[in-house]
Structure formats: structure tokens, C-alpha cells
């Protein structure tokens, strides 16, 4: 097979190696985002002994938002920006709701 045939076959399969690599790196950035948010909530738990863990939804949305925003920055595909903002909005909403529940259940 010649180089052009291999490239055509690869494109037909729909697997873009650069996109796969960027998605993997985005997952790592998302994990870092999750750790930072978890540390924030862990600190508040240390300061307020025995509080229930209402923060989990906010943590998940933060992870997804971080991952999709990094995908957008690297790939410049609008769908990633749209999903990043959707998850960021959901994160903000979940953060607000979970914080209210956190303080109401003191």
C-alpha cells in the first residue's frame, strides 16, 4: 500500500490519532480539576466535622467541563465549547444547590 492509500483508509475509519491523544490529555486535565474541587470540599469538611457529602454532583460536572474545554482549546471544534459551557453551567448550578444543602443540613 502506498502512503496515500493508508491515509485514505485511516480517514475512512474516522480515527484521528491527534484527536485521540488530545482526548487522553484532556482526561488528565479533568482529573486534576476533580482533585482541586475535592480538596476544596475536603477542607470545608475538616472545618465542619461530620457534614454530609452533597458535593459529588458538582465534582463530576467540574471534571466534565474541564475535559471538554481542553478538547475545545486543542481541537477548535465548536461542539466541545458548547458541551464545556453546558457542563460549566451545570457545575455552577450543582455547586450552588449542593452548597445550600450543605449549609441547611448542618
* Alpha-carbon Rg, integer: 19 Å
Low-confidence stretches: none
Distance between the termini: 68 Å
Shape: elongated
Number of helices: 4
* Strand content range: under 5%
- Work out the helicity level: over 70%
Annotation, overall tally of beta strands: 0
Structural class: mainly alpha
Mean pLDDT: 78
Q: Give me the strand/helix succession.
A: HHHH
Describe the main β-sheet briefly: none
What does this structure look like?
There is one protein chain. With 106 residues, the chain is mainly α. It contains 4 helices and no strands. It has helices at 3-13, 17-47, 56-75, 78-104. The termini are far apart. The mean pLDDT is 78.
